[in-house]
Design a protein that fits this description.
By secondary structure, the chain is an alpha/beta fold. Helix content is 59%, strand content 8%. α2 packs parallel to α3, α3 (74-83) packs parallel to α4 and α12 (254-261) packs across α13.
Length: 320
């Protein structure tokens, strides 16, 4: 087993991985040799005192874990740096943070005498992370599947990790398709409209209506708020498809369009594919129809909002 450093700084956006690293470090010691502190209640000097106090009589080794050290100030980092010039024997200091600059005073102090363990996942790489996590569990999925899972769950990594475990358990090493997401994953917070926009993009009226009904069933907000939000999401999505169609006619590819429009390359690629299914005139009529839907949802129609939305979906999707 590798010899432990006198101090560790463990942080990053990949919180499940941060927690795993802390747990592995903690497991190197007996239950009575672990002291947990909170940076919101403990200063750097107090953390040092805890390390020194234990080092006087804990010959078997011990670990002092301080969580939330992103709250610490310069004085706290200075106390840690001074301590690491002569750390307590048989004692490990583990400092844990959610996010921390790599050039911070605390990181510099740990870097000289201890070890920095940073676990970051950039948002644009989150789909690859989802794929890798499922692959480690024996389940291969497409990048489209990963994107759709993120749309349903959001980018909070604890939530994603829970859903990944659930999906991997259900799959049992077998392939899993996007249709299983609707059955197994409950959307978090905001409505995930990709089923609706994808069905519109391939001119699948039946699929669009099915996705719409599913969104109605799952809604935790008021019906009026949901319909207004879905109409706005459709309007924004179709606007991006229009923009991609025009850029495509100018000879630009999806990656160039993504950079120009501030879109994710995956989303731009989908928008390019959908744009090929509609003429410019159809897309203009679509914008007008959505404006009429907005008016209807705000009291401009005597029909129920659900029915107005349904009629609009059919009109937007079928050839005209």
């Amino acid at each position: 087993m590798a010899e432990l450093k006198p101090a560790y700084l463990i942080f990053g956006t990949n919180q499940p991985r941060v927690e795993l690293a802390v747990r592995r470090l903690r497991d190197r010691f007996g239950p009575d040799a672990v002291e947990k502190l909170e940076a919101s209640e403990t200063s750097g000097e107090e953390a040092v005192a805890a390390c020194n106090a234990g080092g006087l009589f804990a010959s078997a080794g011990r670990v002092v874990i301080v969580d939330g050290v992103e709250r610490w100030k310069a004085a706290d980092a200075k106390a840690i740096a001074a301590y690491l010039d002569d750390p307590a024997p048989e004692t490990v200091l583990a400092l844990v943070a959610e996010q921390l600059r790599r050039d911070s005073a605390l990181a510099k102090a740990i870097g000289k005498r201890g070890q920095i363990l940073a676990y970051d996942v950039v948002k644009r790489d989150l789909p690859k992370w989802v794929q890798a996590q499922l692959r480690e569990r024996g389940v291969a999925v497409s990048v489209e599947f990963a994107h759709e899972l993120i749309e349903l769950v959001g980018d909070e990594m604890h939530e994603l990790a829970c859903e990944i475990d659930k999906l991997a358990t259900w799959a049992g090493g077998e392939k899993i398709a996007a249709k299983e997401l609707e059955l197994l994953v409950c959307p978090r917070g905001e409505v995930a409209p990709f089923g609706l926009t994808d069905a519109w993009g391939r001119r699948d009226a039946r699929g669009a209506l099915a996705a719409y009904e599913l969104l109605l069933e799952r809604a935790s907000e008021s019906r009026q708020a949901l319909l207004t939000r879905l109409a706005a999401l459709l309007f924004a999505h179709i606007g991006k498809v229009q923009a991609c169609r025009r850029l495509s006619q100018q000879g630009l590819g999806s990656r160039e369009a993504a950079a120009r429009l501030g879109m994710h390359p995956y989303a731009a690629e989908k928008a390019f594919a959908q744009a090929r299914n509609f003429s410019e005139a159809e897309l203009r009529r679509t914008t007008v129809r959505l404006a009429a839907l907005d008016l209807a949802l705000k009291g401009g129609s005597r029909l129920p909002g659900e029915l107005e939305f349904e009629r609009t979906l059919i009109a937007l999707t079928v050839a005209n």
